[in-house]
Design goal:
mainly alpha; 2 domains; homodimer; about 75% helix; Tetracycline Repressor, domain 2; elongated
């Protein structure tokens, strides 16, 4: 228990910062605590202590621990999805865009390992309604991946016998699983993993025509570079 | 709170069963409760209630909730790993065996969805030492997959530029992720998913020679069948 003088100092120090800055700090600390302890075991007291606020002051920002989890997972989900959608919508052949999307998704996952882990591991701790809010209506990772596989198949770049939904789930599984094994100080860089994973995924579903077209645009890209 | 007569009846009924049968029941019920509630939220009281035992009687079998989790995850891990290792050691070309191993792993995952989910989602709730005991020394899924990729690469069936460890992690991710989306009453059967996933994974890493050899042994298998 801090004594009165210390309490006063901490409150003043916290209150000197603008509200938005404190909110960002709170989210960052909450992400870290959920990551280390798991959502169930994480306590608002510990989050308050680490951010240097009194527990009671948290209630200026949130109503419950659940509000913090919602904020953490919806932020990382929105950012990741927006990267993936931007890459998907750039000009280029659908198979090429799919490869870029996988690459970008892998790099983003590696670079946001802590919030991504909280998102993938703790999303199920949110009540169903809020989970649905986070995932949004229709604009999901799965639909982006699946849409590109469908487009590429229509263009003859993906084999006829590939089921776009299964292919999307196959690719998402291999990339999402990163959160279970990727180590920022490990032997593989995010870029290396991204290149290899995108390569294996594209080869796994591409038709012969698709692979031939891919060779052409890669050669063209190298020539341009 | 059950009254005295009901308590007596329940204890007698539980005690009429042989110890091994009660143990198996206890593990089954614990698996289900961990699956539904998550390990942290699951209580020994609820497990005892559902199995029809007094909470105190659980201590004839275990010392803590952790012992139950250990039992659940080590059982499903051992069974799955033994299936995968048996398939890996059968005669045949390494690429062919890899395809069979992926197929078997997918089917097993789909068929043991509830204990597999507890294994994949709650393993991290065990202390590090017991987690290491569950995973065993070296004989892991990853080493089986990686070993087959290496063998196939030495035989020229997998591309030179494929990193066996990254390939193993790619394949394991896509198959393990099943626990997040597979629905036993959904549109895809375990066999359908297994066939498609094994096909995408093998095509993702195979060399041209490997793909040609695969065509030959598939044709031979069809002729034999």
């Amino acid at each position: 228990m801090p004594d009165r003088a210390e309490r006063t100092f901490r409150r003043t120090a916290a209150e000197r910062k603008p509200r938005e800055e404190r909110w960002a700090e709170l989210i960052e600390v909450a992400t870290q605590v959920f990551y280390e302890k798991g959502y169930e075991k994480a306590s608002l007291q510990e989050i308050a202590d680490r951010v240097g606020m009194l527990k009671g002051s948290l209630y200026y920002y949130i109503q419950s621990k659940e509000d913090l989890l919602y904020e953490v997972v919806s932020t990382v989900h929105e950012r990741g999805l927006s990267i993936v959608r931007q890459l998907a919508e750039r000009p280029g052949e659908p198979l090429e865009r799919l490869e870029n999307v996988i690459h970008g998704h892998v790099v983003h996952t590696c670079r946001t390992l802590i919030p991504t882990t909280v998102f993938l591991h703790e999303l199920s701790s949110l009540p169903e309604e809020r989970r649905a809010e986070v995932l949004g209506g229709g604009h999901t990772y799965q639909s982006v991946f699946r849409g590109l596989v469908e487009e590429a198949r229509e263009r003859g770049q993906v084999r006829e016998d590939v089921d776009p939904k299964l292919a999307a789930l196959f690719i998402l599984g291999s990339t999402n699983w990163l959160y279970r094994w990727f180590k920022p100080d490990g032997p593989y860089s995010p870029e290396r993993i991204a290149t290899d994973f995108a390569d294996m995924a594209v080869r796994g579903i591409a038709s012969e025509a698709g692979l031939a077209a891919r060779e052409r645009w890669r050669t063209a890209a190298t020539a341009q570079g």
